[in-house]
Amino acid sequence: MSRLGTALRLEITLQRRYRFLHAAVFSGVLWLALLLPMPADLRSAAEPYVIFGDLLIVGFFFVAGAVFFEKGERTLDAVVTTPLRFHEYLASKVILLTGLSVLLAVFLATVTHGVGYHLPLLTLGAALGTVLMLLLGFITVLPFQSVSDWFMPAVVPIAVFNLPVLGYSGLWETPWLHLVPTYGPLLFLGAAFDQTALTGWQIGYGVAYPLIFATGMWLLARRLFDRYLVAKTGGA
Question: Are 105 and 126 in contact (CB under 8 A)?
């Protein structure tokens, strides 16, 4: 089995141990309890915001919680000293949690709308948004040793990555919000429920810009991982 396959198996085991998979199911049930009592038109309007919020939970908070657990159990120290490479370690988290987030988004949309939505747009928006939130959570958590130290500084990047909600809702319409990479995924989520009609440049922007931004975040994550974990454990 490849190292990535081994890392994925380990990640599934850890996520089950930390009960994050259970928490994801519970989160989906809570969102359904919020959405199902709504009238159909209001439910359609709320759906992109709900799924966007779920990306924040599964992406940002789950990966942050996983890293803190791994630090506490010294799992990361063991990872650093094994042949497992950084990109394989991080890719296992991104693949598993992105898949989980997309499944939750499809589950929520199907239960509340049947098949009355655009699956490719929903999948694309959920996947891109989750990857961005995952990398953001991973980057912000590395310098800190405890949740209490991390939580307040983490409020700022969370707030920035959620600013597109203001533009999408019409509360703050400015082109500057397009600099926030989560704007594109949010547009795809809206288009999945026929709330917006995407133009050609919006589709290109919505795919290319988040991917470019995510690449930069991945490189930054590697530098921070080396600085705060590899250097402290003496790993290569």
Answer: yes
With CA atoms as reference, report the closest residue to 123 among 135, 139, 105, 140: 105
CA distances from 196 to 21, 169, 175, 186 (A): 32, 11, 17, 10
Give the dihedral sign, CA 124/112/35/199. positive
Range of weakest confidence among 48-52, 112-116, 152-156:
112-116
Q: Would you list the DSSP string of 102-135?
A: HHHHHHHHHHHHTT-S-HHHHHHHHHHHHHHHHH
DSSP state of 175: G
The pTM (predicted TM-score) of the whole model is 0.91
Q: Which class for 223: exposed (0-12), middle (13-18), buried (19 or more C-beta within 10 A)?
A: exposed
Where do we find the tokens 């600099």? 179
How many C-alpha atoms does 8 have within 13 Å on its Cβ side?
12
Tens digit of each residue's pLDDT (9 = 90 or more) over 60-85: 988 988 888 888 777 666 666 677 78
Phi, psi values for residue 106, rounded to 5°: -65, -40
The structural domains of the chain, with segments of one domain joined by +, span 3-233
Residue-wise pLDDT for 144-153, tens only, equals: 988 889 989 9
181 versus 73: the higher-pLDDT residue is 181
Please check whether residue 202 is in contact with residue 175, taking contact to mean a CB–CB distance below 8 angstroms.
no
**What pLDDT sits at residue 236?**
42
